[in-house]
Amino acid sequence: MDQGISLFDRLVDEAWPAAHRTEWGNWAFRHAGGVTKRANSVLPLGEPDDLSRAVDEAEAFYARLGGPCVFSIGGGAPAGLDAELESRGYRLVDPTLVMTAPATAGSGRPAEAQIEHAPSQRWLDTWWEVDGGRHPDGGEITAKEWAARILRGVEAGYASQERASAVGRAVPQGEWLGIYCMAVLPAARRRGLGGSVLRTMLAWGGEQGASHAYLVVTERNAGARALYESEGFGVVARYHYRVRP
């Protein structure tokens, strides 16, 4: 196991907490009403005694919930897990980059950006409009309510600018600051608002005692990657998902 990369497995898990989780040895079976693969997947940290049985247990868990079985494959995953899942027909989806930068990259916070300790309704609406449409409602709890439970699962700062046309979420985690939920409404793009929100969160994170910041972004999201690179972020790790058909 690569201890450096498994650090980010744990940081992401803590910063984006599933509403429900079941521990099975060193693995966690996470569930949050289907909202985001991150909160509805197996986090397989460490080698189980019997890899095949561990996968069987995960499949049975999600079958009982009536949802797909999904694995997050990062640096902490067992060496043979990816091949085991491929042999069972799991698809590889959403190759994702972990990027880091010094928290001091945000020195000089823009005066027009704001940080609150809870997401406002405008904040939630903006993030949901940009990122939430792919999560269909179902059951007694709506997808948006599941999302709110995830967001409020840990203390965080919620950045917004221009009446929440651009938003972001910053999670202090000791020396690390997690950057999440970067979203800019379509009508407000190409005006530098995303970079301003990002710099605001980095500066705020430094005030909270963080010395490093990290974020995750899918490989295919070239626009977001370009923004993060322009603000001093570089790739340090990768992970992907395996989804059972």
TrEMBL record:
DNA damage in keyword set: no
Alphabetized GO MF terms: acyltransferase activity, transferring groups other than amino-acyl groups
Alphabetically ordered keywords of this record: Acyltransferase, Transferase
Domain (N-acetyltransferase) ranges: 113-245
Domain of life: Bacteria
Protein name according to UniProt: Acetyltransferase
High-level lineage: Bacteria, Bacillati, Actinomycetota, Actinomycetes, Streptosporangiales
